[in-house]
Design goal:
Length: 279
């Protein structure tokens, strides 16, 4: 197949490298930075820059841009996608993107599928892109009215580059779950590191500190957009966390060992249950 990738940052660049180096497909790439495109060609991540002519030939187009930019890119190029082409995005929110682009795709004759690769690093940009980023990761797709062959084609492509789990869901359910599994984690990490004590942690920190602070080093432009495109779900998760933290805080402040022990036991058992452990 001929595959176009718009956006050669961490995710788009890693997809380009993985597809080019692990499959027989031909990959073309676009990025707002000409230097990134040139580098992608030099390291064999893409065959050549993605232009309008090549876009009309692509069987699959992966859009790895911010949500607003994704909507703009697909809208502006809607007349260039060939009939039956599959366009899939990589945004961390699905409903705002799918609501705009699914009707457009149906009108123009191509298939839009919402996508979200569950992989990443605390760094961004093509410099950190690597073909192994998606090894053993999950790929989420939104349900589509398109032919089953199209979804089979997508599943085959993404499993060939390392994904071992394919999830199909609705945009609404995706955004509900991702508010907890990803967005809340970034809020907590970013807020946690603001303690004045963080400036004096050296020599007094180990694995738990590293785990909790890893994603504090985020891309504020991207995460601001993602958070504000999913406010109701994320605020609900923050409220739940604050309620639980207040219970711990009050038990500690009052020296209530019985309540504190019960809270800790409940958390430990919930984690074990999630992990499928017997306790």
């Amino acid at each position: 197949m001929e595959i176009g990738i718009a956006g050669l940052g961490l995710i788009g660049g890693s997809l380009a490298k993985a597809i080019s180096q692990n499959t027989d497909n031909t990959v073309y790439g676009y990025d707002i930075s000409d230097q990134v495109v040139k580098k992608a060609v030099l390291v064999d991540a893409i065959e050549q820059p993605l232009n309008d002519k090549l876009l009309t030939q692509c069987d699959i187009v992966v859009v790895a841009l911010y949500p607003g930019d994704t909507i703009d890119y697909v809208t502006e190029n809607a007349d260039l996608f060939k009939p039956g082409a599959i366009v899939v995005d990589c945004c961390g929110v699905k409903k705002p993107v799918c609501d705009k682009l699914i009707p457009l795709a149906e009108e123009k004759g191509f298939l839009f599928v919402g996508g979200h690769p569950m992989a990443g690093l605390e760094h961004s940009g093509f410099t950190y892109a690597k073909k192994s980023l998606f090894n053993n990761a999950s790929m989420i797709f939104t349900a589509t009215k398109g032919p089953i062959e199209s979804m089979s084609k997508l599943k085959s492509l993404f499993t060939s580059i390392g994904f071992t789990n394919i999830e199909i869901t609705t945009p609404e359910e995706h955004d509900r779950r991702i508010a907890f599994t990803s967005q809340l984690a970034h809020v907590v990490s970013n807020a946690y590191i603001k303690s004045p004590t963080a400036q004096r942690h050296e020599g007094f920190s180990a694995g738990s500190y590293k785990d909790l602070t890893r994603v504090a080093k985020l891309n504020e432009d991207m995460w601001t957009e993602l958070f504000l495109e999913n406010p109701d779900n994320l605020v609900s998760e923050i409220d739940t966390l604050m309620e639980n933290l207040t219970l711990y805080r009050n038990a500690i402040a009052s020296g209530d060992s019985e309540t504190l022990r019960a809270l800790l036991k409940d958390g430990r058992e919930k984690k074990a249950l999630i992990d499928g452990e017997i306790f």
